[in-house]
From TrEMBL:
Keyword Manganese listed: no
PROSITE patterns: HTH_GNTR
SUPFAM superfamilies: Winged helix' DNA-binding domain (SSF46785)
Record CDD domains: WHTH_GntR
Signal sequence bounds: none
Ranges for domain HTH gntR-type: 5-73
InterPro entries in the record: Tscrpt_reg_HTH_GntR (IPR000524), WH-like_DNA-bd_sf (IPR036388), WH_DNA-bd_sf (IPR036390)
Record lineage: Bacteria, Bacillati, Actinomycetota, Actinomycetes, Micromonosporales
Record key words, sorted: DNA-binding, Transcription, Transcription regulation
Species, as recorded: Micromonospora endolithica
SMART domains: HTH_GNTR
Example GO molecular function: DNA binding
Name recorded for this polypeptide: GntR family transcriptional regulator
Amino acid sequence: MPTAEPPYRRIANDLASRIRSGELKPGDKLPSTRELAESYQVHMNTASRALSLLHDRELITGQPGRGTYVAERPAT
């Protein structure tokens, strides 16, 4: 029996698809962890874990005191 996708992975995959489609462009600021938590109706820790996953995938970058942004795409 298949198990449901964890909420943090669902959020990360949703944001990743929006980045890949161009809806979110390099340099765009992402919502705060609190805003993501409210938007997806999850705990802030879950939203934070989703952002960590995107950071590990090198899709986003954090700027202390400024926020989280879509990373520049590497030159191909």
